[in-house]
Amino acid sequence: MSALFSCLTIASAWLFLFQLIYQLFLKPVPAPAFNRTAILASMGLTFIIPFLRIPLPSGARSTTGLATPIINIPVSSPEPIMQGIIPWAPPGTPYSLSLDEAAIGIWVLGFLIAALLLMLKLRRIFTYLSTAQPVVNAPYRHCLYHPKLPRAASFGKFLFWHSPVFDPKDQVVLEHEMAHQKLHHVLDNFVLAFLKTIFWFHPAAYYFQREIQLVHELKVDQLLIQKIAPAEYLKLLMRYQKELYHPLTTGFASYLEQRISYMILKKKTKQTRLIIISAAIIVTISVLLF
């Protein structure tokens, strides 16, 4: 089994385990900041764990005192012995791929396709940045409009707006996008997108990418309802959700059901939240040390 195939197998198992722990313990808990850290840590540990080499303590080594046996391999005729170690076939036998070689070939192909798609997305974003025009009357100078991107979104210090002219009624939407910007959520998206190119075959990579988007929205909602009345904020979300063809339906008003549940229906006490998060941490550390 090749080293790369072994690393991918180990990483896939750990990624599945982290997804299971997240779904059982952290998903039901309304703690956006901690859940964000947990998702990023899960993806990071999945990438690092296969490369860890933990040395055994000196007491765990053999203490029998027996001498290491020496095997004398006759130099004159090594072929019969080497045939038991290295796969061998008579001359003229057609070459056949092993299972791990075929799996690695498929993974490399998928990785190249995923990396190409990611680069094309980045190229499209930079094209939008270079060809976009400033939004008229926008209170933020890096607010841009591009007709091919009819939705509010943030990218670094830039904000893409859904209209060429700023409407004061959309001030809450602007604050929403600027909160994403201040929290550096675009960096999370970069990390998840990069790791998804490596684990393109794993459903957990796509699951965590969706979850990080939801966690971002919950965190921003948490900040905004400290300035705006929750009832007014929810009315605004529902208004955009009902307007199916409104540009802000996707993005600002996405994950509406989960966000309402977080703000109103499933509010946990701090004690319950602490117990569940502590249980998730204990389970994760126990598995890592097992």
Question: What features would you describe in this structure?
Answer:
The protein is mainly α and 290 residues long. The protein has helices at residues 3-26, 32-48, 79-82, 99-131, 171-182, 185-198, 203-224, 230-242, 256-265, 270-289, and strands spanning 133-134, 143-145, 153-155, 158-161. Strands 1-2-4-3 form a four-stranded mixed beta sheet, with helices on one face. Helix 1 packs antiparallel against helix 10 (270-289), helix 6 (185-198) packs antiparallel against helix 7 and helix 7 crosses helix 9 (256-265). Mean pLDDT is 79; it is low at 81-86 and 244-250.
Mean pLDDT across all residues, rounded? 79
Runs with pLDDT <50, length 5+?
81-86, 244-250
Distance, first to last CA: 24 Å
Specify the oligomeric state: single chain
Percent of residues in beta strands? under 5%
The neighbouring-strand order within the major sheet is 1-2-4-3
Number of strands: 4
Largest sheet: 4 strands, mixed
The helix content, as a percent range, equals: 55-70%
Helix count equals: 10
Please trace the helix and strand order, writing H or E for each element: HHHHEEEEHHHHHH
